[in-house]
Amino acid sequence: MFDQYRTRMAHRGSTVREANRMQSIKIMENGFDYSQTYKQVMINDELVDARFTSGSSTTVRGGMGNYEIMFRNGVYYPAGTYVFVKNAKDEYEPWIIMYISDDHMFPRHILRKCNYLLRWKNSLGNIVERWVVFSDNQRLINGERNVDWNKLTLSSYATVLFLPCDEETINIKMDQRFLIDHPDVEGNPEAWIVRNRNVNSKIFGGYDGIVELSIARHQFNHNTDDKETMIADYNIDYTHPDDFTPDVNYDVRITYNGKPELKMDTPFKTYTAEFQVDGEVDDTIEASWAVLMDEKLEDIVTYEISGNVLKIKCPFDALLIGRYIRIIAANNDLGISAELPIKVVSAI
Which label site among 50, 56, 327, 336 has the fewest CB atoms less than 10 Å from its CB? Predict the structure, then answer.
């Protein structure tokens, strides 16, 4: 008798609360595919039972809304997982899980529909592509005054991209450029540049999460950007020395006084390539410099290179505030390099 009682308690719960919970789960499981919201979705190339409902409405002013998807009891997927859902045309479309609700029973996965296939080259020169959510709305980045540095940062607008968190997207850094436009656009597609990145607040452990990038419009570069592949900086050389295994540890960094930013209408700002061998500074190693900027800056910014020293200056131009210059100090024989994004700011 006691064994039967324990078996019954294991199936029905040892308390009224637990019994109600298990009964609710059983009812949900038995009637899961009877719901009008039931459909099968594709995740990791497998069909999965789901209930798919609207969470917040899509509006012209507010942009795309969120949707909610619930799986059978005990089935969970991390944020950043792609979910392919059939549309009214019976075609699969990519959605991405933004986060999971904290409901004790039947937690829901919050989804947004992906609307652009983003392509770029990683540090090895390999082409990477990810479905992303290109936000309808622009985000206002608040201006601020820094009393200590007597500096005013003007407010600006940025558009937001949401990507899955993985080994490629976490390495998208400030000043990374993309081409985002309709592939059949006449002339040059629009170029965009990363102005801010968030790989912390929407990450829930490991690669469970979303990478958020704030991007702003940039200048199309005829020398490096490729319209056919829709990849910015496509024609940049990404080659690395083959099979280089040094017996000693080489390193390089770019040094400067104060902050790395370039103040307009001031004397030359100096940046120095400092090489180290096994932790000790070695002045005999020479640097090769690369200064990367958009076309609007090329006729305005002045720079001089003398060995391991790079000097840059820029006259005042309100339209250039907030733009970035990338400098790279490298030694190809050793296969080492250092990169520094420099923000152009007002001296006021």
Answer: 56
